[in-house]
Amino acid sequence: MRYKAVIFDMDGTILDTLDDLAGSVNHSLALFGYPARSRDEIRSFLGNGMVRLIHLSVPDGISQQQEEAVLNEHKAYYPLHSCDMTKPYDGIVDLLKELKRRGVQTAVVSNKSDANVKALVARFFDGLFDVSIGSMDGVARKPAPDMVNMALDRLGVSKDDAIYIGDSEVDLNTARNSRLDMITVTWGFRDKELLIENGASTFADAPREVLDLLF
Q: Could you list the residue range(s) of the whole structural domain that residue 175 is in?
């Protein structure tokens, strides 16, 4: 195998988090009397972290203070409900177990908060990731390469020996900025046409296809 490590995005790649995120966003909006967003709208807003998610979800024209109030409610509510409906995509756990069996190191790098990332990894993938990294103060979020570089350092793997797997244009830009090869998955939060427009060229339509691409 060419690669010694695989770095995964989280939302839309290994975990279907959409319903819990949508529930938290709409709970937070409703608390302040703002209209709900559709599931498809929220799906399109995901990928750049919760601050951007809330910014896109609140009505145009509200004050910064009002937007921060919605954000703070989402920050408080989502961790308590992040596992209500969230689950791994079919085949992901088997893929991770097979990578581990073959001696391939794995990491997850997400724009979710570091605490949320670690909690979700412990809940759904205990022992299957060597490194898990989320958004934290002082470290630029994806598509900046900083968190990916941190993961590579912790794994002790060079860029030439690692590949990135994700589901969005944010992930495509992250892989480019990190100078990593990439597999784009089609079961996540973006349509394939949009991914092609953003330069995706190597696709997996199911987790089992990832193994075929790696080995």
A: 5-16+86-214
